[in-house]
Amino acid sequence: MSTKTIAILATLDTKAEEAAWVKDRIEALGGKALLIDLGVVGQPGIAPDVSREEVAEAGGKPLAQLLASPTRQEASPVMIAGATKLLLAKVEAGDVHGVLGMGGTQGTSNGCAILQALPYGLPKVMVSTVASGDTSSFVGIKDIAMFPAVGDLLGLNPFTRRILANAAGAVWGMAQVESVPVAPKGDKPLIGMTNLGVLTEGAMHAVERFRERGYEVIVFHAVGAGGLAMEQMMKEGIIGAVFDYALGEISDELFHGLRAANSERLTVAASLGLPQVLCPGGAEHIGLLVEPNQVPEAWKDHQVVFHNPIILAPRLSTEQWCQVAREIGKRLQGVTGKTVMMLPHKGTSRYGIDGGPLCDHASDEVFFAALREALPGSVEVIDRNLAAEDPDFVDEAVDRLIGLVEG
């Protein structure tokens, strides 16, 4: 195994003993450790490789200035920015091959903010006292492995030694992985594709068709984080073409569903000039987290189906559906070309086809008309008397995207 360097993020005034143990474990495995001090107020209990003074300076404010009237509110953004800047430079130079952070609530928040800024594929581990609950705000859309500390990180004992040794072994082991680049192989761009459970058969068919043509595909579950991760990978140059098959994240953002993304969703490919084929798949309904098998009062006059006992999928009214159309059109105003919108008139998801629990073709037609009106003229619109999962519909979507890439 080759020697790799693991950066350790810790506040060395309160976590020096733990950081020293992790450093020893990494070195015992044959690696190198780079201690980065994120502390501000207390004195470090072990000598860092990157001092808090260096981190603060890189973050745009001298440590002495932070110490004049120290508050977490002022210090955290500076230390996060500084550590991020320094780490990104070291990763880019090939000097750091993995990062391990540790902490309680504050340490987890600061450490994970730094980890979220690092490239996909770089090993990232956070040992945290708050990793047993909802970690979505800490992980975000990045590939961060959360290790529950179980006990508090306040000094070493037989239990915390083992937990920290496991985490050190995990990040060091990840760093040994060779020849598995995130970037696409060859000269064909990596394709990003969104999907929902009500479109999975079509998505599987699309992946197979892309593979037959020599393209690899990353499929994202379009439940908020999925769409955002896809667009982040566009920004990082990982994804070079897009089949945005499932646009339910837009509907959920407008009507407070659990699949909501954010206001940037659906704007990134256009801003980067990437070729894209879109379909309003799964956007006729939203997803709501509910009490088992209970329909909220506000949705009792809508067509509904339970995706499972605690997730309700109510169909939008025609007016709500048209609001989605206008929002999609608004977000695509920056498109200058290489964009196709495909409209499946026999159903935008499995729920909306003939016999489906949310079927309403009359409402669909009003939506399609509203979408046509809202889209800029630079978007080519294709109408097909097919459902979104029909193989012929998917085949054409795949062919058109490849045509935009290779044309």
Structure description:
The protein has helices at 16-28, 52-58, 63-68, 72-92, 105-116, 136-139, 158-175, 200-212, 225-235, 248-255, 268-272, 318-331, 361-374, 391-406, and strands at residues 5-10, 32-37, 98-103, 124-128, 145-148, 190-195, 217-221, 239-246, 276-281, 288-289, 304-308, 311-314, 339-344, 380-384. The radius of gyration is 24 Å and the shape is elongated. 40% of the residues lie in helices and 18% in strands. The strands form three sheets. Strands 7-6-8-9-13-14 form a six-stranded parallel sheet, with helices on both faces. Helix 2 (52-58) packs across helix 4. It is built from 14 helices and 14 strands. The chain folds into two domains: 5-175, Uncharacterised protein family UPF0261, NN domain (Rossmann fold, 3-Layer(aba) Sandwich); 190-406, Uncharacterised protein family UPF0261, NC domain (Rossmann fold, 3-Layer(aba) Sandwich), CATH 3.40.50.12030. The protein is an alpha/beta fold. The longest helix has 21 residues, at 72-92. It starts with a strand and ends with a helix. It holds the Pfam family UPF0261_C. InterPro entries: Tobamovirus_resist_UPF0261, UPF0261, UPF0261_C, UPF0261_N.
